[in-house]
Amino acid sequence: MKKLLLLFLAIVLTACSGLGKSEFERNQEKWQDANISHYRFNLFVGCFCIFTQDMPLIIEVKDGEIVSMEYQSGNPLDDSTRDYFSKFATIDHLFAELEADLGGAADKVTVTYDETYGFPVDVSIDFITEAADDELYFTVSEFEALS
After folding, report:
1. CA distance 141 to 39
2. Max alpha carbon distance in the chain (Å)?
């Protein structure tokens, strides 16, 4: 009987450990727990911008640093565009941007997270709901953990 009670308490405490955390926090923790230091992914950034015809970007990251970032189309990134994309070019940067937007920088944010690693897969950000052409969209695809 004691063993059954201890097992029940262990299950309840385990279930309660995730309570109080937001979906964002649970998924960011899942990403951090995965401890993936070297990875590659495709990033589609959609907005009312001129560069969307060259999307997606193919990005490789190692130890938190951008190893490479290029358009899948083969067109080169100019310096200003590279600087703009750098703030989204790692999974940790995506989480930081998302945290700011969820924290009030945007009026409406919709996010879908990767079930395995927790990183944001589809993000829709509307900075001002009454304004036109201020929306920003991200799609992460082709994620690959590298050795």
Report:
1. 12
2. 69
Has residue 101 been placed in a domain? yes
Q: Is residue 9 part of a domain?
A: no
pTM more than 0.90: no
Asked if residues 59 and 144 have their Cβ atoms less than 8 Å apart, the reply is no
The number of folded domains in the chain is 1
Q: With both helix axes pointing from N to C terminus, report the angle between 23-34 and 91-100 in degrees, rounded to the nearest 10.
A: 160
**Dihedral in degrees, nearest 10, Cα atoms 56, 62, 63, 64:** -20
The span from the CA of 37 to the CA of 46, in Å, is: 26
Rounded distance between C-alpha atoms, residue 108 and residue 129, angstroms: 7
Secondary structure (3-state) at 112: strand
pLDDT tens, N- to C-terminus, the chain (147 residues): 655 554 555 555 555 555 688 999 999 999 999 999 999 999 998 876 666 677 899 999 999 999 999 998 887 788 888 888 898 899 999 999 888 878 777 788 899 999 999 999 999 888 878 777 777 888 999 999 997
* End-to-end Cα distance, the chain: 48
